[in-house]
Write the structure tokens for this entry.
Amino acid sequence: MSAPPSIAAATEALTIGRAALRQLHDSLLRDAPDAAVSILQEVGFAAGGGVFQAFCGWLPAETGVARPADLDAGRLNDVLSTFFRTTGWGAVSVAPLGHAALVVDSSDWVEAAPGSAQEPMCFFSAGMLAEFFGRLSGEPVAVMEVECRSRNDERCRFLSASPDTLNEVYEQMKEGRGYEEALR
């Protein structure tokens, strides 16, 4: 006999806390620096399903909307900001960027460790957000962090788009173009 859907969804999410996420980062960067990025992204991607299930369970009680598919696009920014803030990730703003991407910004994102890096470092979050937004949209989604509080940017900024779009943005960034220019 399987558990009712509400119990199954509730047991999918697990809170590990800020300290555990920070320790995961530190341990991987210290003990497996060549594999740290891919491991953090993969673990984040695996966590995204649980975060999405938690969102599905949270949504009706907090918004009166039964399913994410029923959520009005005009409310998406406020709903996602409230969800991520109240679940400990940090407040976000979500908006279109260009014609093919969403931008997710946060000035208090949990994974960032201000002043600790030269490059964006929220790899776990990029994986988690890719799975979360993929489930939300019903299509494969890739996420790339392009600004990060870990390197003293004033916000963490994640681009969410199709894998092909983000591959093209990445290639153009390697050639010196800015991500905003690449998305025009």
